[in-house]
Specification:
This protein has about 190 residues and is mostly helical. About 60% of the residues lie in helices and about 5% in strands. The chain contains eleven helices and four strands. The structure holds calcium ion (2 copies).
Length: about 190
């Protein structure tokens, strides 16, 4: 441990994260040390996040999707990810609990953060997802989901809504949970 006070994670944040995530205090302290090493300022900017994210998708255009992911993680809207947002993000996206993951997916699709998803927001995210998919994989997609529009149409049908309706978080989670096709359509998981 260093002797500088600013180097340690604050007790308040630690308590909060212990309550709200599955991580233990030891894990959190360790995460924090890694975070500070990678990110000495204690903040990740949108640009830094995009460049980290793009490394995972060397064969496709990940910037648009990365921007949406960043927006969903940046809960206080200040254009930066701090340690707390980073840990909550890690928790939501890595946890085995599907409901938690779907709550995060909802915030990803809720582009204007108004608490509802519209069909045009679904299209917007599907378009971003499509840019993640490498060309050779695109060619193998089924006929009814081989464009962003078709994918959005197919996904929207699962919510049983009209074109101008909107989907609340509970409806989104319910529509996707226990539905393998919908679950697959809301995300892109690289093959391998
Ligand atoms: Ca923030
Ligand atoms: Ca919305």
């Amino acid at each position: 441990m260093g002797n500088s006070k600013s180097g340690a994670v604050s007790k308040e944040i630690l308590e909060d994260l212990k309550l709200n995530t599955k991580f233990s205090e030891t894990e959190l302290v360790q995460w924090y040390e890694n975070f500070k090493k990678q990110c000495p300022t204690g903040r990740i900017t949108r640009e830094e996040f995009q460049s980290i994210y793009s490394k995972f998708f060397p064969e496709s255009e990940a910037n648009t999707y990365a921007q949406h992911v960043f927006r969903s993680f940046d809960t206080n809207d200040d254009g930066m990810l701090d340690f707390k947002e980073y840990i909550i993000a890690l928790h939501m996206t890595s946890t085995g609990k599907t409901t938690r993951k779907l709550e995060w997916a909802f915030s990803l699709f809720d582009v204007d953060k108004n608490g509802y998803i519209t069909k045009s927001e679904v299209k917007e995210i599907c378009t971003a997802i499509f840019k993640l998919i490498p060309k050779d994989e695109l060619a193998k997609l089924p006929d009814d989901e081989n464009t962003a529009e078709k994918r959005a149409e197919k996904l929207w049908k699962f919510f049983d809504k009209g074109d101008n309706d909107r989907v609340a978080e509970g409806e989104f989670v319910k529509g996707v949970l226990d539905n393998d096709v919908a679950l697959r359509l809301i995300q892109y998981e690289p093959l391998k």
